[in-house]
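Re-running PadR family transcriptional regulator PadR to confirm reproducibility after the cluster update. Everything else is unchanged from the original entry.
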Amino acid sequence: MNIENAQVQMRKGILEFCIMHIISRGEVYASDMLDELTSAKIMVVEGTLYPLLTRLKNSGLLDYKWVESQSGPPRKYYVLTETGKKFLDEMQQTWNELSDSVNTIVQKTQHLENENKESSTN
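Result of re-run:
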């Protein structure tokens, strides 16, 4: 199994969740989303972000408005719709449950590994 493929799949699974969280804070421009995702080490490119934003918009979870820019063409700023806010709340609940479940399993594994290390050094 290729570790890079596994990492990409894990990141894809949470990208929508992270994007919706960023947008939930208020109107946001796509390049600002890219900057925040990159600084959080969630590598994403425009070719991934824009189709995802379009899909979320077409699903009724996002909307956007055009804002004139002093330094170029108008910019598209994204916001969550009321449906998007409810969807994000449900995603947050799922994330909390999933995170707790995964952490329980990982912590048990780490605990057992530590016990095994201690018993092998004695």
